[in-house]
Amino acid sequence: MSLLDLSALLVCVTAALAFVNARFLKLPASIGVTVGGLLISLALLALVALRVPFALSAAEAARGISFDVFVFEGVLSFLLFAGALSLNSHALWSLRGPVISFALLSTAISTGLMGGALYGLLRLFGLGVPFVYCLLFGALISPTDPVAVLGMLKQAKVPKRIETLVAGESLFNDGVGVVAFAVLASIAAAGTGGHSPELSALGVLTLFAQEAVGGLLLGAILGLVAYLALRSVHDFVVEVLLTLGLVLACTAVATHLHVSAPLAAVAAGLLVGSLTDRRPASLSSREKFDAFWHLTDELLNIFLFALLALVVVAVDFSGTALVLGLITIPLLLLIRTVSVQVPVWFLNRRHTFAPYTRRLMIWGGLRGAISVALAFTVPAGQARDLFLVMTYVVVVFSIIVQGLTVGRLAARAGEQGA
What we know:
The chain is mostly helical. The protein has 17 helices and no strands. The model is unreliable at 193-197 (pLDDT under 50).
């Protein structure tokens, strides 16, 4: 199947799923498209089992999709930039302590606890996966997915303070999680005779700082350059082109400099969003600018979740992996509770957290396409096959079950003024 045929098929399937959801299911777009895509994937898998020629060709085409490349080199930077652009930077700055604490401390706690728990769990099932690979799974499954979380917040009408806190944590802990995953992947490669050198504790910290701080610095520099250009023009088309170029530059330059592209996109989005609020632009231009990025965000979000649902045909399922995935769901929720509560204990002296704040952060901490994309980057072998299935099970539960019920929790939070 050619690239044109594959692109046309994916776009048409996504459009059909979005139409069916809007016309009949009336679920939030990401959830409805995910459900519809899963049903199509399950039907396709059944036809593959029956050796239907069309289904075999479609499954082979789906396996040829580089989902991780599509996410990390394609849509992720645009989605993170759009999400950061829509946030109130000044409100986020007032919550910088909690946001940074949750992004760093919660991710670290969750990665360590999930890695240790998985190591023991796999031993019970007689599976000998190295501990560093278990930590790798902890790093890919711990960060909340900003694409899923931001979509949920738009639907749930969460109180502004908790919306800023949850969205800010998700935007930054995604970048932190990707950096932690990259560091652990280097350690795993070094331990299995890969090309990466042995990493000392100082080397690990240096690599983490290079990825994280370098990404934020790159995003701030490029974002400032874009702002200076935006300040001198008042043309909608030029504004859009400048910001599109900014996002692509963040992704490309970050890749060459080996720094975090997600954090660069977040930093650039926050800076441009904050500074353009003060720019003396016409209201119509500002409205069209915001409308363009909102539409881009919605379209890429729907397309990403449709592809996430369809990529299940590229995953080799096994009974053991499915059971482990189901066990991981409550285990991850418990670990998320601990990883949220610990920073709250440290922050209670300066910040007050209502009970519903913690509940929303725990239950609203959705996992999504980024975790699946990271699982696809694990080196081929037993660990990768296990992690793909386990991650997919967790993500489907998170998007459908948590995504459909968090609105009620958000409504209660609004009533209580959380």
